Target: Carboxypeptidase-like regulatory domain-containing protein
Amino acid sequence: MANVLKQIIYLRGGMNKKCTYILLSFLFLPFLVKAQLSQFKDSIIQISGITMTADSLRAVPAVSILVKGQRRGTISNSQGVFSIVAFKGDTLTFSAVGFKKKDYRIPVNLPGNNYSMIQLLVDDTTYLPITIIKPYPTREEFDKAFVSNDIPDDQYELARKNTENARMRALSRYTPPDAREATSMYLNKQAQSLYYAGQVPPQNILNPMAWAQFIQAWKRGDFKKQNNNNYSYGGTDYGY
Model:
């Protein structure tokens, strides 16, 4: 009997110790989490700067800035300005066509969470293979190749094609509404149904404004059957 009582007292003492450890862990858990969050926040830094040439201090556009060992990065704009978020101690790799790659390791002991820098890039000489230019055998072949040559459109021509009326009408006809437009249409329809609740809704057959809109749409040819095979983004034939 005495041995049984000793075992019970020993088990109760062990349970009390476990409960004490659990209570202490719950008490100190918020402080530990707060310390870890503060340390994680201090390790994040936003690097903003500009990429320039080392000899003439000209801005270098379209420079790829990648975090080494990770699939994250950014590209400098037309003025060479960039901004990227990384961790202190990470290595940034700067690369651009015609320039040598440059690695920059972010110091671990940088104060604050923002840092500005100017990254200088050195020109890189690339030796291309020899290009041999040969004339066309005959004038007729040259004329044929010159006429059939596809010259790419410049930015002005691309902007004109992207904003022409036929293209915009085709996009508005065949592009489905997004979530915001669908929600707005549903709410408007629901509000209209509640507005005429308990009474007969008006009939547009007696509305002169509706008849005017119908006649204008009829003149524009909105009720004609559209041939989807004629629709094309690259040309002006949209089947209208």
